[in-house]
Design brief:
heterodimer; A: 265 residues; alpha/beta; Rossmann fold; five-stranded parallel beta sheet; two-stranded antiparallel sheet; 12 helices; 17% strand; B: 758 residues; 4 domains; three-stranded mixed beta sheet; 14 strands
């Protein structure tokens, strides 16, 4: 099967914040499953795209959701004119043909769904297709990467202990101020000074995490704000529509954020 | 015939015959249709109160006036309040309450306002029972002058201003001075401190990552109101309202004041010593210090200059007074665009900016202020320290930067009050700490209310006898334990509220969970004979079967169904002596955490709409197992519940089995499908008359078994119990959770509840 559609090009921009690239390369060579942890919008997905590009491997991404079943991952029988026909799911495609399978926001899927990845994540590296009575041995190039936002973690949504313990984890946070400003300036195409102001605002909102906000402003949001600035909307207004309004519906919190932005700018 | 129906209903209500027939006619007219039935229910509740015959007739009379003015629902609500009053206060208070209802009705003007008045009275009776009658009597007169919101802030100003001192509250409510009343009224566009408190707190946390204690200064009868903010370290106090500012400008004013205080907290690290400084010099050192901390804050956040400058609007002119000169200097130091030709102002600006590199040193302010004060003094312009008020108004009163024990301050009255307020606050904190160490029973807050309650409370009412299991002989001892019901005393829920404030984050997370649970997500039901859509998997299975020559399964549809909750919960709290122990590394008792956890959980259950009750127990031998009903299944969760929770005291022992059996009987009467007893205990069962450690353990185990036979789930949360705890043996290891870090209880308990019930 041709997976060339899944190849990433051109190079996705990624600015390393620490040693994550070296760590990922090591885990990748040892065929270890990797878990990317970190708040939303801090660059997890961008990182894996960048790494797929580096290794020149196809990347199969599955956005996990609550109603996802194991069949949505491994595949199912479908009907055609002549009878039933098996259709590989995204996971099976990656396993058979040697791609990186990236399960985004894995905690969103139900716990009983995620256990299908267990036999793939230890040294067996197999995927039993029980309905089809087939045992798929993983292609040597197959890798499994999941992402996971600890902020969502609650009693209802958490990984099973037995799932967690199969992965090596890379911890992602928002980059240092300098680095973050560089990223925002590059991605949004604005000058360094504006980018620095945006980062300063974001850092202050992150102080409010758990005190009125569930998450502070993410790098992704800053890039959105930056792009608005690049289309010549004022900084204050860009922040209002790209940061404050999406982040919270609470009137008091909006008031606070607006004041914080006014004071930082 | 509706008439006959009413006759029938009448027979079921005691004392209904005392109401004369003319009143009945009026009542029938005032309560059309089904509302009469509701009203009769309410009447029945009133009839159960002590002093009933008189109450019933009074209530009927009040109802007619009330229903005609405000509507039938208001009467039902008023009956609720009357029963709430009955629980805490005497018959006299209820009579007074019923007597003023007809007079309140015209003043309240609309149902919503009337409800606010009722809620205020309910909250007041739990916070200040001694003053409730007084407030009720004055209500109509006050409502004639104030809106109901003004009334509410008048009441709570009195309650909070007295800091738990009943005598002070009584004096506040009995010396109502009509002039001070207007300060509680709010006009359109007025912004009071409470409106912006939350944003201000978040503002400090976001920008400087500090968590100051924000308060508003209480208004007191006969004392001039505060006009400026004040601070003592991270204790920030604001005037209730800044006169002259409205709408968004008033909000900005609060933000400006907060930013100024935060700048002091960050950059005025040590207090200045007054030494031989004259009042004018003191004022000027304060002014320069204000400018210095603002300059430092602006270096980090340039936008602050804009925030502050909008309140500096002085213009140059002839030097008429020191105050005027100082306002100009203040503006010149902050505003680079401001031009002032006065030599004194120019000198001040030059000195200030020449020492730019020394701004980080507070001594700079003293040096400059000293010199400028000298110069201004020599200009012979008058300065009156008594009437001097710091300008512009967002700045603090200037006392926070001075060492207190020095020469008498420039403005004795106001500063004394500030210091007093701060001191009260400090000693209160000290109390908090000592209170947590096993002297919980000492009258808290010197609260007369709770002392009165103690006296009333000391005898319980026997409500049941329960058997107990003797594991040695293997027999059931019938009617072995006696349950006595005690009314929980009420106390101010401030401590709980403070704890809840610490757990604001948890509260928000719970609200979120509640929301996702309540919107009752649709659940997909597959393999149905009928349904909205084809179930793809079932279809494929059916086709395969058909082709394989088997009879295909006809159920190939799927449908969605809303998950519904059918569950009642009884939260059983262990309030034995050991819960008064302090939790390691904190200044909180186990009981205080139990209380906070219970109220967080109660909030979650309340929002979910699950029927729940909160009961508590302790024991003193088999003949005295004390049982407290903090909240019953049918009661609403209100401020009263929290004040009853706050009134729980740790004492005596833990006879778990008896309490569990009682709790089982209580929840057994609920009609829900699932029934859950959630018990929080800090140790193993024990009692003074039982030397055999295993005896009560085995008995409790037996009780749990009996409950599970009746379809009642029991789950235990054990606090800080050792590794060899007997609790897993009693409840089974699956129905037991150990919490070793007790301070996480308020957070863990609601989460656990969601885990158990979803």
């Amino acid at each position: 099967m041709d997976l060339s559609n899944y190849l990433i090009s051109p190079e996705p921009y990624y600015r390393p914040a620490g040693n994550e690239i070296a760590h990922f390369i090591a885990a990748f060579s040892a065929r270890l499953p990797v878990m990317l942890k970190g708040p939303t919008g801090c660059g997890k997905t961008r990182f894996i795209e960048h790494m797929a590009w580096r290794f020149k491997k196809p990347l199969v991404t599955v956005a996990c959701h609550e109603d996802m079943t194991a069949a949505d991952l491994v595949g199912r029988f479908l009907l055609d004119a002549n009878g039933t026909i098996w259709h590989d799911g995204p996971l099976t495609i990656a396993v058979r043909h040697g791609a990186i399978c990236y399960l985004d926001e894995i905690v969103e899927a139900r716990q009983d769904t995620t256990v299908v990845i267990h036999p793939l994540t230890d040294d067996r590296r197999i995927l039993p297709l029980e309905k089809k009575n087939e045992l798929v041995r993983a292609h040597p190039d197959f890798r499994l990467v999941i992402s996971y936002n600890p902020g969502y973690q609650s009693v209802i949504k958490d990984l099973k202990e037995s799932t967690k313990q199969r992965f090596v984890a890379l911890d992602f946070t928002y980059p240092e101020a300098e680095a973050e400003a560089e990223i925002v300036a590059h991605e949004a195409g604005i000058d360094r000074d504006d980018a620095k102001k945006l980062v300063k605002i974001a850092e202050r909102t992150r102080n409010l995490k758990g005190h009125g906000l569930d998450e502070g402003v993410s790098t992704r949001m800053l890039i959105h704000a930056g792009r608005l600035i690049a289309s010549s909307i004022s900084l204050a207004q860009s922040c209002q529509i790209a940061l404050v309004l999406p982040l919270t519906d609470d009137r008091d919190m909006r008031k606070t954020l607006s004041e914080v932005i006014a004071v930082c700018a | 015939m509706p008439g006959q129906l009413i006759e029938g209903l009448l027979k079921s209500v005691d004392y209904a015959g005392d109401i004369d027939s003319r009143s009945w006619d009026e009542l029938r007219a005032a309560f059309p249709g089904a509302s009469l039935e509701k009203w009769l229910d309410a009447l029945q509740r009133i009839a159960r109160l002590p002093g009933a015959p008189l109450l019933v007739t009074r209530f009927a009379k009040a109802s007619i006036a009330l229903a005609n003015r405000i509507g039938p629902d208001a009467c039902i609500e008023a009956a609720e309040t009357a029963t709430a009053l009955g629980r805490i206060s005497g018959t006299n208070t209820i009579l007074e309450f019923l007597a003023v209802l007809p007079h309140i009705a015209p003043e309240a003007r609309d149902p919503a306002a009337f409800m606010v008045w009722l809620r205020t009275i309910e909250e007041l009776v739990s916070l200040a029972p001694e003053s409730t009658g007084l407030v009720i009597r004055q209500s109509a007169a006050i409502l004639a002058r104030l809106s109901v919101r003004g009334f509410r802030s008048w009441v709570f100003n009195g309650v909070h201003g007295a800091k738990g001192d009943a005598a002070q509250r009584l004096s506040y409510f009995s010396h109502t001075d009509t002039h001070s009343l207007s300060s509680f009224e709010r006009n359109e566009g007025d912004v009071i401190f409470a409106d912006v408190e939350k944003p201000l707190r978040a503002f400090c946390r976001a920008l400087w990552n500090i968590q100051p204690a924000l308060r508003s200064a209480p208004v007191r009868p006969g004392v001039k109101a505060f006009r400026r903010s004040s601070f003592d370290g991270l204790f920030f106090q604001f005037p209730e309202i800044y006169a002259g500012y409205r709408g968004s400008q008033a909000q900005a004013h609060f933000f400006a004041a907060t930013a100024h205080l935060a700048a002091h907290a960050l950059y005025t690290r040590r207090r200045f010593v007054k030494g031989s400084l004259r009042p004018l010099q003191v004022a000027l050192v304060g002014l320069v210090e204000d400018a210095r901390v603002e300059a430092l804050a602006i270096a980090e956040y340039p936008g602050l200059r804009r925030l502050w400058l909008q309140f500096h609007n002085v213009q140059p002119g002839p030097a008429v007074s020191s105050e005027f000169m100082m306002m100009r200097l203040a503006r010149a130091l902050l505003d680079p665009a401001y031009a002032d030709d006065d030599p004194w102002v120019k000198k001040g600006v030059r000195m200030f900016f020449d020492r730019r590199n020394h701004w980080s040193d507070p001594a700079t302010s003293r040096e400059i202020g000293n010199l400028l004060g000298n110069d201004l003094g020599q200009m012979r312009i008058q300065f009156n320290p008594k009437s001097y008020v710091v300008e512009p108004s967002y700045r603090d009163d200037g006392d926070g930067i001075w060492e207190v024990d020095d020469s008498p301050p420039a403005q004795p009255e106001a500063s004394d009050m500030m210091l007093e307020a701060v001191r009260i606050n400090r000693s209160e904190e000290k109390n908090d700490r000592s209170r947590t160490e096993r002297n919980d029973d000492a009258p808290q807050n010197a609260n007369m209310a709770s002392r009165v309650a103690t006296a009333e409370e000391d005898s319980g009412v026997p409500i049941a006898r329960h058997p107990e299991w003797d594991h040695v002989s293997g027999t059931m001892r019938h009617d072995w334990t006696t349950l006595l019901e005690f009314t929980p005393r009420r106390a101010s829920a401030e401590q709980i509220d403070a704890l809840l404030r610490q757990h604001e984050d948890v509260e928000r997370r719970i609200t979120k969970l509640v929301r996702s649970a309540k919107i009752s997500r649709p659940r997909r039901i597959r393999g149905q004979a009928q349904g909205d859509r084809l179930d793809l998997d079932a279809c494929i299975r059916a086709s395969i079967e058909r082709r394989a020559g088997l009879t295909p399964e006809p159920r190939v549809y799927e449908t969605s169904e809303m998950l519904s909750r059918d569950l009642s919960v009884l939260l059983l709290l262990d309030v034995s002596e050991s819960t008064r122990d302090r939790v390691k590394d904190t200044d909180m008792t186990v009981l205080a955490l139990e209380r906070a956890a219970a109220s967080l959980l109660a909030q979650a259950m309340h929002e979910l709409g699950d029927p729940f009750a909160i009961h508590a127990f302790c024991s003193n031998g088999r003949s005295e197992v004390r049982y407290y009903r903090v909240k019953e299944f049918h009661e609403a969760y209100t401020a009263m519940t929290r004040s009853a929770l706050a009134g729980l005291r740790g004492m005596m022992s833990t006879r778990l089995g008896a309490a569990l059996r009682q709790a089982g009987d209580e929840i057994g009467r609920q009609a829900t499908h699932r029934k859950l007893i959630l018990i929080i205990t800090d140790g193993e069962p024990s009692d003074v008359d039982v030397p055999d450690k295993a005896y009560l353990v085995e008995d409790a185990r037996r009780a749990v078994h009996a409950l599970s036979h009746r379809g009642i789930d029991v789950f235990c949360v054990g606090l800080e119990s050792g590794a060899d705890s007997a609790l897993p043996r009693i409840f089974g290891s699956r129905n037991f959770m150990k919490i070793t870090r007790v301070e996480t209880l308020p957070e863990r308990l609601p989460m656990l509840y969601f885990m158990l019930t979803m």
